[in-house]
Specification:
The chain has 770 residues and is of the alpha+beta class. Helix content is 25%, strand content 39%. The protein has helices at 5-53, 100-103, 143-151, 354-364, 466-472, 522-529, 553-570, 600-615, 629-653, 672-682, 700-709, 715-735, and strands at residues 57-65, 70-79, 86-97, 107-123, 157-173, 178-193, 206-211, 214-222, 231-241, 256-271, 279-294, 300-315, 320-337, 376-393, 400-415, 422-430, 434-443, 450-461, 475-491, 494-511, 535-545, 588-590, 621-625, 744-746, 764-769. The protein is extended, with a radius of gyration of 42 Å.
């Protein structure tokens, strides 16, 4: 049925009016969104921020897109309180709000980023900050307000693509006269959301910055709104310059920290499930490099090239820490005692507060409730490499100086839980040549202290301690050597110690007037204590209890030594027998199978023998070399096999001129089989053939066995090896220049192998005195 013209006209007018209204609303919405609202918001923000911050605020521009729901603010600048200079600024902030916020009944942001945020912080000499006026005073909350706050539900949100780029912070600390710069601040968070569908997804934030020219990086993954709160962060810091922060030391530093760099690469993990205790674990690497401490006059005291800690895991809430390794590399210590008797290294120790000490005394008098707060620390390995210590004492005339170099050592299996002793080892050289070694076990953290250590010092030049001998003995020392062999064991508070001392060829010089010198007739005592070789052998055993307040190891040893000197004066008889030294062990030296090269252990024995012969010119010595038929033959065969393999590589590298000798050539593991095959093919014996009549390539082990089976080492060749061993010993002894050739004889043993000795190799050289 057709509509009447009048009705159609009325409908057309309504449509036009509706269209006009829609267009008008669209135009108003557009004008308000693009023009009016940005302008108004700029004015409001400028005014409100300036009012709340009590600082001049300027905004370059505000842009709003009412259709894409984006907001952009550029050129925000907050001046300092005085109006001069910039307190904070922001290059640009951008927010992309999503219409999905309505459907999800929460805040949904597609993108949020800040560009070039800047902040200038100043701490004045009165310890106040330039932002102190911005911190609101704490207001007491009423119980009703708190209850209302508890009932409020958290706002649901999902913010994506969060970025902060090119930020910077300047911190001017007038109180410490230090300025800190943090630049290139960049932060990226892909998303963060507390919406139920996303709470179990990992948020993976990352942060990087340059902190006072030190690179800092932080990244991780976390579930901040899940039940587990599962979080893992990785932190990386590269070469933080420590002296820049020395002003913040909580203790007074009576020295200068001239250099030092801190680096770390660590991982921190946290997790907490319902009805379970939280877990916080830390692992990673900590390095401190190039530490240099100087005294007040600028002289170096401590120089440390590297201190590195490898943290396997630290369960912080459980107070369990496991260090897989601790490395101390190239430490240099310069200890000096000045004319007043002051030691420079004591300036590194903070002065104690007497008040605090008195409080501690009173506290210690009370019974302890337990040691539950003590962390359990395990250190698998501690390594000390290439240390050096110099000590100079200027309180003496003339001054005394000594150096310890090549200090190497370590601990393994150290734990604060106690019950298991750690292995300890330390080696060093005194004044470049004198060996010092300390080995054994210690348990410093057990219920009771346990120590089982051996200390050996060989050949220390006594003439170097003349400044002390002049003061306490009354004589200079022209020559002499000191050898120590000390053993100390503390178990269940009981000490058993052995102090074996050898003083060799000590000769006193001129008399020195000293009020501190002993009145004992030292020269006469030394003449009595010396044996016919000019040696003084002393064994001073010490026993006692460490819980005896009157007991002191040092004082006991000193008293025993003084008593020994006194007895030597009052009892003129041989206190120490004339012994060559070394016992049965000096009757032979053991060599590596297949070799006639002297080892360091051989040389040590031969040096002792040479000294003994030198002191006894009437003695002659026979040298007889022997061989182990099985072991020597096997090593020589394998040596010849290796030379055949090397020869194949030598042909290839000989043209380059490096190496010039076959023995200097090295066969790497990856090329061994290749050159073994080439050497195998060169052999003349019958070898398995393939289908083409060519040499068949068999397993490397089979090739090696075939080649070894065709290498022959005769008894005559082994006797020649034994003879070379004898000649090596003779050459070394005669090379010392102390022994005449007419006193040394090489004998031809009746048998190729010597008589069997328990735990002694047959590849040896035996000696016989005549």
């Amino acid at each position: 049925m057709a509509q009447s013209p009048e009705k159609s006209t009325r409908l057309g007018k309504r449509a036009r009016k509706a269209l006009i209204c829609i267009v008008a609303v669209f135009i108003l919405y557009t004008l308000a969104g693009f023009l009016i609202l940005p302008f108004t918001l700029k004015l409001i923000l400028t005014s409100k921020l300036a009012s709340n911050l009590h600082r001049p605020v300027t905004i370059e521009s505000v842009r709003i897109n009412p259709y894409s729901l984006t907001f952009a603010l550029k050129g925000l600048s907050v001046a300092r309180h005085s109006g001069e200079g910039v307190f904070a600024s922001l290059g640009e902030v951008y927010i992309d709000l999503q219409a999905a916020s309505i459907l999800k009944r929460g805040l949904v942001v597609k993108e949020f980023w800040l560009k070039s945020p800047r902040l200038s912080i100043v701490r004045d000499t009165d310890m106040t900050y330039n932002f102190a006026d911005l911190i609101p005073e704490k207001e007491a909350k009423t119980k009703d307000t708190e209850d209302e706050g508890k009932q409020k539900e958290a706002l649901a949100f999902s913010i994506n693509n969060i970025q902060i780029s090119n930020g910077s912070i300047e911190f001017l600390d007038l109180a410490k006269d230090v300025t800190h710069h943090i630049r290139d601040i960049n932060t990226n968070i892909p998303f963060i959301s507390n919406m139920p569908s996303e709470v179990n997804s990992f948020v993976k934030p990352s942060f990087s910055a340059v902190f006072n020219e030190t690179n800092f990086r932080f990244e991780g993954s976390t579930k901040p709104f899940s039940d587990s709160l599962e979080t893992t962060f990785k932190i990386k810091l590269e070469k933080l310059f420590i002296p820049h922060y020395a002003a913040y030391s909580p203790v007074k530093m009576d020295y200068k920290l001239a250099s030092g760099y801190l680096s770390t690469d660590a991982t921190l993990s946290y997790i907490q499930y319902r009805d379970k205790s939280p877990s916080l674990e830390l692992s990673g690497l900590l390095e401190i490099k190039d530490i240099l401490l100087r005294d007040r006059k600028g002289r170096a005291m401590v120089d440390l090239a590297l201190f590195r800690v490898d943290l396997a895991t630290a369960k912080l809430f459980e107070k369990k820490i496991h260090l897989s390794s601790v490395l101390i590399e190239n430490p240099r210590i310069n200890a000096v005692r000045n004319k007043k008797g002051e030691i420079n290294l004591l300036t590194l120790v903070p002065e104690q507060d007497n008040t605090a000490e008195e409080i501690n005394k009173n506290t210690n008098d009370k019974p302890k409730s337990g040691t539950g707060n003590t962390p359990e620390i395990t250190i698998s390995k501690v390594t000390l490499k290439n240390g050096r210590v110099r000590f100079a004492d200027y309180s003496l005339k003339p001054p005394f100086s000594v150096k310890l170099t090549g200090i190497n050592g370590g601990l393994s299996g150290l734990s604060t839980s106690g019950g298991k002793a750690a292995n300890a080892k330390l080696t060093a050289k005194i004044d470049r040549y004198v060996p010092l070694s300390i080995t054994g076990k210690i348990d410093p953290f057990g219920t009771e202290l346990f120590i089982d250590l051996k200390c050996k010092l060989g050949g220390f030049e006594l003439s170097s301690v003349t400044p002390y001998s002049g003061k306490f003995i009354g004589y200079t020392i022209e020559k002499g050597k000191l050898v120590l062999d000390l053993k100390y064991r503390i178990d269940k508070k009981k000490l058993n110690a052995s102090n074996v001392v050898l003083i060799d060829q000590i000769t006193l010089g001129r008399r020195v007037k000293s009020a501190d010198a002993t009145k004992l007739p030292i020269k006469f005592a030394l003449r009595l204590l010396k044996d016919r070789r000019g040696e003084i052998n002393i064994d001073l055993p010490v026993t006692g209890r460490t819980d005896d307040p009157k007991f002191s190891v040092g004082s006991v040893v000193f008293k025993m030594f003084v008593n020994l000197i006194s007895k030597a004066v009052t009892s003129p008889f041989a206190l120490i027998g004339a012994i060559v030294g070394g016992g049965e062990e000096l009757s032979f030296i053991e060599l590596e199978p297949g070799s006639y090269t002297l080892t360091s252990a051989n040389i040590k024995k031969l040096d002792t023998l040479t000294s003994a012969l030198f002191e006894r010119p009437s003695l002659k010595m026979e040298i007889g070399g022997y061989a182990d038929v099985e072991k020597d033959r096997s090593v020589v065969m394998n040596y010849r096999l290796l030379n055949k393999i090397k020869a194949q590589k030598f042909r290839k590298v000989a043209k380059k001129g490096v190496p010039s000798e076959l023995d200097a050539l090295t066969i790497e593991a990856g090329e061994y089989d290749k050159y073994l095959w080439k050497a195998y093919k060169k052999e003349k014996f019958e070898k398995p053939k393939n289908a083409f009549g060519l040499t068949k390539k068999i397993k490397p082990t089979e090739m090696k066995e075939l080649m070894l089976s065709h290498i022959t080492v005769t008894d005559d060749e082994l006797r020649e090896l034994a003879t070379r061993r004898s000649k090596a010993v003779k050459d070394y002894i005669l090379g010392s220049g102390k022994i005449e050739a007419s006193r040394i004889f090489i004998v031809w043993p009746k048998n190729l192998t010597p008589k069997e000795k328990k735990d002694v190799s047959q590849s040896r050289v035996e000696f016989k005195l005549k």
